[in-house]
C-alpha cells in the first residue's frame, strides 16, 4: 500500500472575536513574541526570561512564594501538578465540587490513589464556610481543593474564611485560579493559599500552553516530607523546580516560545496595572449585564457571586442554543460558549477575559445577539 502525501494549505485561521470560556483574544505583541527566534532552553537569554516570568507571576499572584513558575502544559497540567505533588497514595483530599472543574480535580486525585471525599453544591452555587468546617472536622483531610472561578457555571467562590478554616484544621488549601488570575484579585499570601494553578488562555490572554503555579512554604514542606516518589515524572516539582531554580538542571525542554508569549502577556498585565485590570473586567461585566437585562436575558448565577470574566446567562425559552451560537460565529465571527454538564442547552457562557474584556466587544455582542434573536 502506498502512502499518499498531501501538501495542505498553510495555516490561515479566520478572525474571531473570542467571547467564550477561553481562549480569549491575544494581543498582537504576544503573537509577535511567540514568533521570536527560538533559543536553547539553557541559553542565558532564556534563563533570564524564566526569571522574569517567575518575577511577574509572583506580582500577579500577589505572593512572595519562591516556588512560582509556569508548568509546561495547559491549566489541567497545573491542576495535575498540584494534586500529584501534594498527595501520596492513601492521603485524603476533600474536593468542593460545584461544577466541572471541581469534579476534574477529584478525578485527578482518585487516579493517583488518594482517598477522595467530595462535597457538592448545585452548579451555579458556592460553598459556605460552615459546610467546609463541617467536612474538615469529619474527614480531617491533608488537602482541601476548591475552584475560585468555576468556568462551567460562572460562580465566584470567596476564599479567605475558608482558608482560615482549612488551616485551623491543619490542612493545605489548593485553589483552581485558571479563570480568575489576571481578571479579579487572587491574593495568594493575604488569603494564605498553599497551592494554586492557573492557565494562560483566560484573563492572561496568551494562547493555551502553560500553567502558572505557586506553592507556599507550607506546601513545599509537605512535598519535601513525601515518603513516595511523585507518580508523574513530567510534573514532579522536585525536579521541575531545580530547572527553574538556581541549579538549572535539565529536566524537560521548556516550551521556549510559549514562555516568550507568556512573558509579553504578563508585561501587558503589569503595564495596565492590576487594579485597573480588575476594574476594567468589572465595568465590562456590568455593561454586558445591563445590556442583556434590557433584552430580557437574566444571569444564571446570583448577583453576589457572579464572575466578572465569565457571564453565564439563561437561554430564553424557545431559543435554539446551538443555532444562535452558530449564527453568532458565522455572521459575526463571535465565539461564545454553551453550557457544560447539566447546564448544556440551558446557559450561554459569555467570556470577557483579558484582551476580550472590552466595551467594544460588549456592544458588538449585544448588537449581534439582537440580530440573531430577531
Ligand atoms: N480549571 C478551570 C476553572 C478551567 O476553566 C479550565 C479550563 O477551562 C481548567 C481548569 C482546565 O484548563 P485547560 O483546559 O487549559 O487544561
UniProtKB/TrEMBL annotation:
Biological process (GO) annotations held by this record are: glycine biosynthetic process, by transamination of glyoxylate
SUPFAM superfamilies membership: PLP-dependent transferases
Query: Record keywords: Transmembrane helix included?
Result: no
Q: Which GO terms describe its molecular function?
A: alanine-glyoxylate transaminase activity; L-serine-pyruvate transaminase activity
Q: In the Enzyme Commission scheme, what number(s) does this protein have?
A: 2.-.-.-
Keywords attached to this entry: Aminotransferase, Pyridoxal phosphate, Transferase
Give all N6-(pyridoxal phosphate)lysine modified positions: 202
Highest taxon of the lineage: Bacteria
Q: Where does substrate bind?
A: 349
Q: Does the keyword Isomerase apply?
A: no
The Aminotransferase class V domain, residue ranges: 38-339
- A Pfam family this chain is assigned to: Aminotran_5
Q: Which positions carry the signal peptide feature in this UniProt record?
A: none
What cofactor does this protein call for? pyridoxal 5'-phosphate
Q: Which family does it belong to?
A: Belongs to the class-V pyridoxal-phosphate-dependent aminotransferase family.
Q: What is this protein called?
A: Purine catabolism protein PucG
Q: Which organism is it from?
A: Gimesia algae
Amino acid at each position: 500500500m502506498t502512502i499518499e502525501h498531501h501538501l495542505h494549505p498553510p495555516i490561515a485561521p479566520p478572525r474571531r472575536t473570542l467571547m467564550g470560556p477561553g481562549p480569549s483574544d491575544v494581543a498582537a505583541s504576544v503573537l509577535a513574541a511567540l514568533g521570536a527566534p527560538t533559543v536553547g532552553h539553557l541559553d542565558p537569554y532564556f534563563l533570564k526570561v524564566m526569571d522574569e516570568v517567575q518575577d511577574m507571576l509572583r506580582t500577579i499572584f500577589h505572593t512572595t512564594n519562591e516556588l512560582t513558575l509556569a508548568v509546561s502544559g495547559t491549566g489541567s497540567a497545573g491542576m495535575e501538578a498540584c494534586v500529584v505533588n501534594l498527595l501520596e497514595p492513601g492521603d485524603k483530599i476533600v474536593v468542593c465540587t460545584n461544577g466541572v472543574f471541581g469534579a476534574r480535580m477529584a478525578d485527578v486525585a482518585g487516579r493517583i490513589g488518594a482517598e477522595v471525599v467530595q462535597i457538592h453544591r448545585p452548579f451555579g452555587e458556592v460553598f459556605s464556610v460552615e459546610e467546609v468546617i463541617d467536612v474538615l472536622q469529619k474527614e480531617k483531610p491533608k488537602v482541601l481543593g476548591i475552584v475560585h472561578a468555576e468556568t462551567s457555571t460562572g460562580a465566584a467562590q470567596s476564599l479567605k474564611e475558608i482558608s482560615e478554616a482549612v488551616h485551623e484544621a491543619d490542612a493545605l488549601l489548593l485553589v483552581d485560579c485558571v479563570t480568575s488570575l489576571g481578571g479579579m484579585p487572587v491574593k495568594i499570601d493575604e488569603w494564605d493559599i498553599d497551592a494554586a494553578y492557573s492557565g494562560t488562555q483566560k484573563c492572561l490572554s496568551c494562547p493555551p500552553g502553560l500553567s502558572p503555579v505557586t506553592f507556599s512554604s507550607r506546601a513545599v514542606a509537605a512535598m519535601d516530607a513525601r515518603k513516595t516518589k511523585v507518580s508523574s515524572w513530567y510534573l514532579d516539582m522536585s525536579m521541575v523546580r531545580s530547572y527553574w531554580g538556581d541549579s538549572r538542571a535539565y529536566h524537560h525542554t521548556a516550551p521556549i516560545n510559549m514562555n516568550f508569549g507568556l512573558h509579553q502577556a504578563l508585561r501587558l498585565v503589569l503595564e495596565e496595572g492590576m487594579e485597573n485590570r480588575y476594574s476594567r473586567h468589572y465595568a465590562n461585566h456590568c455593561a454586558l449585564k445591563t445590556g442583556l437585562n434590557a433584552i430580557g436575558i437574566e444571569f444564571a448565577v446570583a448577583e453576589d457571586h457572579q464572575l466578572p470574566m465569565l457571564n453565564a446567562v439563561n437561554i430564553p425559552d424557545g431559543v435554539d442554543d446551538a443555532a444562535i451560537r452558530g449564527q453568532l460565529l458565522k455572521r459575526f465571527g463571535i465565539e461564545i460558549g454553551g453550557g457544560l454538564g447539566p447546564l448544556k442547552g440551558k446557559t450561554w457562557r459569555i467570556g470577557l477575559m483579558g484582551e476580550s474584556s472590552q466595551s467594544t466587544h460588549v456592544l458588538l455582542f449585544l448588537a449581534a445577539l439582537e440580530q440573531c434573536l430577531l
